[in-house]
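Below is how a single chain appears once it has passed through the pipeline. First comes the sequence as given, then the structure the pipeline wrote out for it. We keep one example in the README because the format questions we get most often are answered faster by looking than by reading.
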Amino acid sequence: MELKGQLKSISCDYFSGHTLITCETEEAAAPQLEKLQGVPLAITFKKFRKKRSLDANAYYWVLITKLGDKLNLSKPHLHNILLRRYGQPEVIDGKMIYLVLPDTDQGARKADEAETYHIKPTSEIKTGRNGERFRTYVMLRGSSTYNTEEMAHLIDGLVSECKEVGIETATPEELSRMLELYEANRKRRGEAE
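Resulting structure:
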């Protein structure tokens, strides 16, 4: 059991040498504590600190899980949908990267569920020599490479989609704090621009 509270008094029994400590907790804990009365306890006192807040990336994955459960989509599939709607293209020398995959249900499913790469289908379809159809895809950057502004855009899109289906989301102020923490973590890892 962990409680938040304050030390109210400390006294010493000079005959036994034992210390009597009185604490006040913020929440009603008497019923649970009564069960522990007279039982040897391991007691730890430490200064209270707020639990570490989620950074924006962790919050993104919390919402992905909730929305995926609601829509019955896997996390990789939903992540790819969101990257396609709100994500950033992969660029080399100022040019987007394109690739071609068979234009089949199996090819589309594999692209939807991919975790190690992210691609967005285009409307461009080519026909091979043997009549097989191929769809052109644009390569997308993984969200782990996003700066704070790009991550904010991705999360804003996700939040909007969550609200559409009634999933509760953080306030703009809470989201702003998470994005600040995200940026601080990127700087600490040497990823900031």
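The mean pLDDT is 90.

See the next section for the split statistics.
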